[in-house]
Amino acid sequence: MENCLFCKIAKGEIPSQKVYEDDAVLAFRDISPAAPEHVLIIPKKHYDNILQLDDNALLGHMFEVARQVAQTLGIDKTGFRIVINTGKDGGQTVEHLHLHLLGARELGWPPG
Ligand code: 5GP
Ligand code: ZN
32 CB under 6 A from ligand 1? Predict the structure, then answer.
């Protein structure tokens, strides 16, 4: 999608610190990390948000990638959080579906 930040990152038009990539999915470090390890996992195909996603196999694959990246980073041992912010109240700021993988510190609950 034109003028979408994460589409541009997916195409390599904007640089990112990649931690995993395949044909369907890209994982890269968040530019403003909310935890010592903070990775974003995106589908290369544009979906505004989780409501628009019509491909459960892709969703499953994104979670599999998140699990794999957690192992690569070593946070599978200490624990981590997977988050999908959606819409205004969900705090979504980039309208291209993404999954946050956060870890390497104790995370507070409930969210603020
Ligand atoms: P949201 O608030 O939509 O759930 O998450 C968007 C995330 O994208 C934020 O955590 C923000 O720091 C991150 N972000 C915004 N712009 C960029 C960028 O240009 N590069 C990277 N790597 N992350 C970004
Ligand atoms: Zn996009």
Answer: yes
Q: Domain range spanning residue 70?
A: 5-103
Record the pTM. 0.98
Q: Is the pLDDT of residue 112 over 90?
A: no
The whole-angstrom separation of Cα 112 and Cα 108 is 9
CA–CA gap between residue 109 and residue 112 (Å, rounded):
8
> Which one of the listed residues 46, 61, 96, 98 is annotated catalytic?
98
Q: Is residue 108 part of a domain?
A: no
Residue 111 counted as domain residue: no
Lowest mean pLDDT among 1-5, 13-17, 32-36, 52-56: 1-5
